[in-house]
Amino acid sequence: MTTRIAVLGGGISGLSAAFYLSRLVPETTKIVLIEGSDRAGGWIRSQRVSPGTYLSTPNDNTPQNPEDVLLEVGPRSLRPVGPGGTIVLDMISQLNLQPEVMSVPKTDPSAKNRYIYYDDQINTLPSSLPSLLFKPSPPVFKSVIQSIVNEFHAPPGSADWAHDVDADESLYSFVERRFNRHVALNLVGAITHGVYAGDAKNLSVKSTFRVLCENEKVHGSVVKGMIKGGVDLQTANDKKMVRECLENPGSTEQQKTWIQDMAGQSVIGFKNGTETLTKSLRDWLVNQPNVELVTGEQVSSVELTSSNNECKVTTTKGTHFADHVISTLPANVLDKVLAKTPLMHLKETPGVDVGVVNLVYDPYTVQLPYDGFGFLTPHPDSDYKLPVPGTLGVVFDSNAMRGQDQKQNQANSVGGGEDPVKMTVMIGGHQWQKTFGGRSVGQVSPDEVLEYAQKGVQTYLGIDANPTHKMANVLSSCIPQYRVGHEARLRQLDRQTSDLYRGRLSLAGASYLGVSVPDCIKNSRELAENLVRSSIFGHSKLVTGLERIRVP
Ligand SMILES: C=Cc1c2[nH]c(c1C)Cc1[nH]c(c(CCC(=O)O)c1C)Cc1[nH]c(c(C)c1CCC(=O)O)Cc1[nH]c(c(C)c1C=C)C2
């Protein structure tokens, strides 16, 4: 009998879920991947563009000219660390994409130098605890050093991590409690901008920087934990998946050695941008006899049929019936789709809106005075006020991933081989409304966001020159916010999904268990494997995609 699985959403999570399922399921299982827009890949979008101004990413497939420059809208590099890192590397190698990969070693200045803008200047972030303690640092770091000494002796706080599985607090409150307000607003507030474009006062310490509360739970102090080598956050299944990647009998020795080499790098990227990965997944999937890729069909509803034996997926163009549905839609979008039998808490993980502006300068006119990854800005409640409020940070792309435009430039008699100066300004996030006078994303034109970014670059970096290439995109609801209590809500959602959808619906994607590309791929792989295992062994526990937060 044919089994049908519908995967909703064609971003990295949906593509990965279909990829792993397609390799694991028998030929009689048919997979349909349904994407609402006309292209697969989601937020991952890379495009080479000619000089000019673009108020969205152009769909330009014309032949390349030497002045074209590669611009990224979404993630520009991947960190190959931990189980997610190994799983991405394995996926890249299974897709034979190794020749497309570029890597940045841990010794590269962009891996070591990250900056924070405060006190009206760009300050280098200490790259490790010893460098903070023993290297000369600006006066603003003095209270940081004191707070580290105090944290070592600080008593446990109110959060009872050991006895209350649902204990949680905000990142800000945790860091203020254990370190001090200065560290919480200026350092952690900035890092929260650099990962979640979010507010450290709202985000859950447990679901965003779990390592912090685990160190308090296990070692009584974050600093003590770091000195003792930290805590192991990997589940048994993470370890199993890593082992399978490293010992895969289907991989050659060359592939295994490549994975191990790459795992030691700071970050990896692709010569033609991150979209190389999603395009390759898409191309692979369309060639599989058991996969159908449907684009341009928005899902409007998902419901169990009256027999409870299948799900009916209604889209803007028709109806699909499936024995199991994997949703990789953002939780707040899924909430609307499940209107007939609603699930709790889906609305409580909203995404933030971010203005992403790529700017490129002629390297003979503009030189960046910083050789590092980029800079971030503190939490808006910091005593250090920003001259251009709402700027979350700026990535120095031409430092962070060198050589992506080299071929173009060598052929370009004007550039003469020098990489263009490329950067990306990120604006808004949790401060979107405040930055743009209470207006929502739809009411702010990319033109205005572009102008705002240029004002920022002029103010923070003193760059007045006219960029050769400018591109602005307004990304609506792009990074899910794991607010305080996220994990406890997931636990309830897990139970309710099992109860109401009886193993016919599972959840994956950035709304639940990690926002990074490696996390999304890892969670989709785990879900695909759990589904196949449960269909073979008929596990009594129904698969929902949220297994990892179940309390044993
Ligand atoms: C200024 C805004 C942003 C910058 N990057 C992102 C935003 C919103 C998005 C983002 N950055 C990271 C992730 C997680 C993915 C991952 O692979 O881990 C996401 C969704 C990674 C990241 N970037 C920074 C840090 C500290 C991290 C965590 C992991 C790591 O250490 O690499 C720092 C950082 N991000 C931005 C800048 C300018 C910056 C530092 C100077 C841009």
Automatic annotation (TrEMBL):
Residue intervals of the Amine oxidase domain: 12-530
Pathway(s) it belongs to: Porphyrin-containing compound metabolism; protoporphyrin-IX biosynthesis; protoporphyrin-IX from protoporphyrinogen-IX: step 1/1
Catalysed transformations (reactions): protoporphyrinogen IX + 3 O2 = protoporphyrin IX + 3 H2O2
Localization annotation: Mitochondrion inner membrane
Classification via InterPro entries: Amino_oxidase, FAD/NAD-bd_sf, Protoporphyrinogen_oxidase, Zeta_carotene_desat/Oxidored
E.C. no: 1.3.3.4
GO biological process terms, semicolon-separated: protoporphyrinogen IX biosynthetic process
MF term (GO), any: oxygen-dependent protoporphyrinogen oxidase activity
Top-level taxon in the UniProt lineage: Eukaryota
Similarity remark: Belongs to the protoporphyrinogen/coproporphyrinogen oxidase family. Protoporphyrinogen oxidase subfamily.
Function: Catalyzes the 6-electron oxidation of protoporphyrinogen-IX to form protoporphyrin-IX.
The protein, known as: Protoporphyrinogen oxidase
Annotated organism of origin: Phycomyces blakesleeanus (strain ATCC 8743b / DSM 1359 / FGSC 10004 / NBRC 33097 / NRRL 1555)
